[in-house]
Amino acid sequence: MKHITFHLDFISPYAYLAFEQLPQALEGLSYSVAYRPVLLGALLKHHGQLGPGEIPAKRTWTYRHVLWLGHKHGIPIQMPATHPYNPLPHLRLALATTADGDISRHVAETIFRDVWRTGGEAGDVTRLAALAAQLKQVRDSGSDEAKAQLKANTDDAIAQGVFGVPAFVVDGRLFWGFDGIAMLRACLEGDAWFSGPNWAEADQRPMLLRNNR
To answer: In the chain, N or C terminus with fewer CB closer than 10 Å?
Structure first.
């Protein structure tokens, strides 16, 4: 049995779509999944990137694209009333339900669907309180422990080379994005391609460095 670490942030519609699609996409395979919340904003900052919602033209495309993907794959999806929004309360709430850095599929599903199926204000305090009431917590979501766990998860993801979400890590290999799930399945099935040079040596070449002066 292969073990997959699924790095996610509830702010990401692609992470939501990947979460919903994963069981169907990997049907028939033997695997386990650790669902691990991370702070996407911190990943982007570390790698010197802007989020798609921070680039006006890309924001428009991204929202159209995710709604299309939901339509194509039969996954219900509605844009939240405001996006991007601050995902910290959702991430810390998720980590309040566990004594370690991984959450259950039930917790991930409950939060993802509250954000991406209702069309409401994800950050509304009343909605957050109602969401918290649905989940069994083992520590306070505002505790130092929950905050520290989120930072530890994010730091660990960066150390593994994670640069965005959704990201899947299995046997030290990193797969990124909703469209990376097919590649993940091939790896889990033992496709010999992953033992060859196309995986191991794809980035082993010089690159042009920009001179901004």
So the answer is: C
* 84 three-state secondary structure: coil
Q: What 3-state DSSP class applies to 205?
A: coil
Q: pLDDT per position in the chain (213 positions), as tens?
A: 999 999 999 999 999 999 999 999 999 999 999 999 999 999 999 999 999 999 999 999 999 999 999 999 999 999 999 999 999 999 999 999 999 999 999 999 999 999 999 999 999 999 999 999 999 999 999 999 999 999 999 999 999 999 999 999 999 999 999 999 999 999 999 999 999 999 999 999 898 877 665
pTM across the whole model: 0.96
Give domain 2-200's CATH architecture.
3-Layer(aba) Sandwich (3.40)
- Nearest-angstrom CA–CA distance, 90 and 94: 6
